[in-house]
């Protein structure tokens, strides 16, 4: 288990459908922004990964459990944690809480590292994931 990281945000109008609920692709987008902010704070941003190692993170799988979708202008908290990794895969949990602190969305994501030039999956170097 790794470090947890949280961010609060309000659902903007442009991410809501005609019923006022956030669209599922936007849930994923916001979640990835939160994990990106954690990476920046830990000094291992996507830009650093590309410049120093010529690697990019690729999401290969999502498992999403939705109790309810957040609505326009609702303040949510997105929490993420890098759980574990093996030779090729890294696993990250995301939980979205409503204003009352209830978990309304649970998501597990599987990531791999890909070499930008060769487009081949690269093994996970423990040095890269150590900050998490």
Beta-strand fraction estimate: 35-45%
Average pLDDT across residues? 95
Which stretches are poorly predicted, pLDDT < 50 over at least 5 residues?
none
Assign the structural class, choosing from mainly alpha, mainly beta, alpha/beta, alpha+beta, or little secondary structure: alpha+beta
Order of helices and strands: EHHEEEEEH
| Shape, per Cα inertia axes | elongated
Account of the protein in words:
- The chain is α+β, with helices and mostly antiparallel strands and about 130 residues long.
- It is built from three helices and six strands, in the order βααβββββα.
- It has helices at about 25-40, 45-55, 125-130; strands spanning about 5-10, 55-65, 75-85, 90-95, 105-115, 120.
- Strands 1, 2, 3, 4, 5 and 6 form a six-stranded antiparallel sheet that branches.
- The mean pLDDT is about 95.
List keywords for this structure.
single chain; 132 residues; alpha+beta; 6-stranded antiparallel β-sheet; 3 helices; elongated
In short:
The chain has three helices and six strands, in the order E-H-H-E-E-E-E-E-H. With 132 residues, the protein is an alpha+beta fold. The termini are close together.
Note the topology:
Layout: E1 4-10, H1 24-41, H2 46-53, E2 55-66, E3 75-85, E4 90-97, E5 103-115, E6 121-122, H3 126-129
Antiparallel strand pairs: 1-3, 2-5, 3-4, 4-5, 5-6
């Amino acid at each position: 288990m790794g470090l947890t990281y949280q961010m609060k945000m309000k659902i903007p109008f442009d991410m809501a459908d005609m019923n006022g609920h956030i669209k599922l692709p936007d849930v994923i987008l916001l979640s990835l922004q939160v994990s990106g902010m954690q990476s920046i704070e830990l000094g291992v941003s996507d830009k650093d990964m590309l410049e120093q190692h010529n690697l990019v993170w690729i999401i290969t799988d999502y498992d999403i459990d939705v109790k309810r979708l957040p609505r326009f202008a609702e303040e949510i908290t997105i929490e993420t944690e890098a759980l574990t990794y093996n030779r090729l895969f890294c696993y990250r949990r995301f939980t979205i809480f409503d204003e009352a602190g209830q978990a309304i969305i649970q998501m597990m994501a599987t990531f791999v590292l890909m070499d930008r030039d060769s487009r081949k999956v690269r093994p996970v170097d423990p040095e890269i994931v150590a900050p998490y």
